[in-house]
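ok new one. same drill as before - structure tokens go in, u give me an amino acid for every spot. 85 of them this time. try not to just spam alanines like last time pls lmao
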């Protein structure tokens, strides 16, 4: 399974939903980068994604986006293939 990285905050409901979806898909390890604890991490997230909102999810080297993007990949059957790579 590829490395999963998620920029998130402690109280974001979309971050919690993204994590729950990934867990349902069998993901056991998620590198969480808390942008609410370290503003420099938010700046880095914005620099590499062009987005301000959390979560921002990476599967391997691929930036898949936020929760809505992740759910759309799942609905389209693409998420399983990304996680199996």
């Amino acid at each position: 399974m590829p490395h999963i990285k998620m920029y998130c905050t402690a109280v974001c409901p979309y971050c919690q939903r993204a994590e729950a979806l990934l867990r349902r898909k069998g993901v056991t390890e998620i590198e969480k980068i808390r942008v609410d604890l370290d503003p420099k991490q938010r700046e880095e997230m914005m620099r590499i994604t062009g987005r301000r909102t959390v979560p921002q999810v990476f599967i391997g080297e691929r930036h898949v986006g936020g929760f809505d993007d992740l759910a759309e990949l799942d609905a389209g059957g693409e998420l399983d293939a990304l996680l199996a790579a």
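Residues 13-24 form the longest helix (12 residues). and btw The longest strand covers residues 4-8.
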